[in-house]
């Protein structure tokens, strides 16, 4: 148990925003399995049945297929990286400092929307389904990441220069000259 507490602190003992009870939960294990299963399923499709589907597509749809399959692969690799970093943190294979460093390198780019809808609809249904599932998973991970971010430090109160001058004037006039 002491080990788990150590993974939630930096070497200086200060709390790190990366700490999330979620990574130790059954919900994270389910998310991890779902994400890794999706990676495997997409890889199997793109290396097998998907190649066969792509051979018979019209040129414009084949180009969209190539584009969407690259986006899908990139998105899934980003998700897999995020999941693996969090799993390594939860199992103690990585310190919070190491995990935070790795996490800062993972950038989820919003890649959907550039394929025209009429062409996207002509892509094989299996590819469209994989794309949709990966986007939903990415949205969930982004929300988890955003929820785990610390609240920004409150801004220092801005002093009203007029109020400061009024206080100084009051102090001057309220002083007893005796």
What tags apply to this protein structure?
178 residues; mainly alpha; Helicase, Ruva Protein, domain 3; 8 helices
Helices and strands, with pairings:
Elements: H1 2-6, H2 26-47, H3 49-55, H4 59-90, H5 96-103, H6 117-120, H7 125-148, H8 161-174
Helix pairs in contact: 2-4, 2-7, 4-5, 4-7
Please tally the β strands and state the result: 0
Helix content: 55-70%
Shape: elongated
Order of helices and strands: HHHHHHHH
Count of domain modules: 1
| Approximate strand percentage | under 5%
Major sheet details = none
In CATH, the topology is named Helicase, Ruva Protein, domain 3
Oligomer category = single chain
In round numbers, the mean pLDDT is 80
* CATH classification, class level: Mainly Alpha
Poorly predicted regions are: 1-19
């Amino acid at each position: 148990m002491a080990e788990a507490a150590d993974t939630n602190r930096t070497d200086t003992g200060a709390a790190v925003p990366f700490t999330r009870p979620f990574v130790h939960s059954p919900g994270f294990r389910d998310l991890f399995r779902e994400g890794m299963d999706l990676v495997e399923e997409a890889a199997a499709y793109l290396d097998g049945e998907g190649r066969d589907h792509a051979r018979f597509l019209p040129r414009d749809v084949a180009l969209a297929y190539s584009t969407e399959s690259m986006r899908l692969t990139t998105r899934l690799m980003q998700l897999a990286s995020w999941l693996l970093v969090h799993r390594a943190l939860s199992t103690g294979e990585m310190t919070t400092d190491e995990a935070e460093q790795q996490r800062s390198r993972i950038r989820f780019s919003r890649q959907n929307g550039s394929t025209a809808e009429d062409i996207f609809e002509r892509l094989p249904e299996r590819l469209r389904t994989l794309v949709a599932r990966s986007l939903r998973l990415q949205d969930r991970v982004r929300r988890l990441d955003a929820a785990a971010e610390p609240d920004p430090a409150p801004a220092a109160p801005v002093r009203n220069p007029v109020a400061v001058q009024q206080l100084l004037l009051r102090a001057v006039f309220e002083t007893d000259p005796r």
